[in-house]
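Hey,
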Amino acid sequence: MLAIQGAVDKHLQALDRIGARGQPVLRKEQLVGLRALIMPGGESTTISKGLARLELYDPIREYVRSGGAVLGTCAGAILLARKAENHPVPTLGLLDVRAIRNAYGTQVDSFAALSDTTGDPFLAGMRCVFIRAPQLDQPGPGVEVLLRVDGCPVLVRQGKVLASTFHPELGADDRLHELLLSL
């Protein structure tokens, strides 16, 4: 669990509910031996500055390139993308999508919606909480859309990289955390 900023405790609680032990990650040595890494939501500028300060950009890239699974939620999804727009931040470039920051508006525009019933049957009908959420667009050929809300991609996968524009940790539905560990 990348523990620079964001809903770290909520993700750790979700992992606990599905019988997985989470641990905070703030140093490259802590990536060794992980089954999966979660990059939480929060503020993408703050998290990107933390990644730079802690010198974690390259170690996270290497972790994923060597077969590690990763889930980025909201700000974490932005940081996984090939490119961020609308006040860009440095990204990891591990997911072939463009992330548009705050695409749904400001904090007061936050909302929850059920995902469309098309897409991955295991995840269909998931309640999605959007808080200053990004949109993911221009997916490359290797990117699979797993969930949509109102026709827009809200959960995508490229190999062992998952990116969610919503906050799966803000509820009792742990299917996305289960999917991450299955990778």
